[in-house]
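@channel sequence for tomorrow's demo:
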Amino acid sequence: MILAGKRCLITGANQGLGLTIATAYAAQGADVCLCARDEAKLAAARDAVQAVARGRVIAQTADIANADQLQNLIQRIDREWGGLDVAVCNAGIYGPKGYIEEVDWQEWVEAIQINLVGTVLTCRAVVPGMKSRRAGKIIIISGGGATKPMPQLSAYAASKAGVVRFAETLAEELAEFGIDVNSVAPGALNTRLLDEVLAAGPEKVGQAFYQASVKQKASGGDSLEVGADLCVWLASDQSTGLSGKLLSAKWDPWRELGERAADLRKSDIYTLRRIVPADRGQTWGDPPKGTR
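structure tokens (generated this afternoon):
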């Protein structure tokens, strides 16, 4: 019950990782607000979360790329709960698949609008209340596109790299207000996004990525619950003071990082940074002596 009394919003919560996070939060005692665009799926998700809930559960349809709909959602939370302690920015799509000169341009822009602009709009909506209370947790779901190129999935890759750098920036903006902002790399998950890749085929997503996706489907992929567990930890008081980081649910020792928050605050560990030749043992490209 480490989230007892926490008022939490999860976007994209009607299926997949978002629903798993919402369920984990509810089981840990949080008040949970589910948000998504599909009304029927959202209603079913609300019922599933309610079945395990120790706190209050509400749900409201909203498009995170629509500022007015987000404001209506936040106003409802303020009216019914008196505020928000945790926001999980999970909603996202892959967007168009194919070479940049061939994909539908409006679909490409829509992916940026949902993944990047929608995440920023969600944060804009929740930050004023958190600032007034001088406390809060913002958790942004990243993806493979943040840390490596993803040919033929350029909108997804660009948007996910963008949200991670946005999270790093927002963390610094909000540090004096006691608000922690972190990104989560949940792993290779078997969700609707994987099914989209398999349906698109190798001619759209590339042979290598398609074959890797086939293997992932067969293996079962990484655990949704592990990603949700990291989001529970980041929403809890156990992680207070840790901010501006991109954490891997699968690979990083995140359960130990609460006691290292002060050291990590001064470090670029778990962040996106440029690699220079010296980082890889090369001497070429070094600046002249005395100028470093």
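heads up for whoever presents: Residues 190-221 form one domain.
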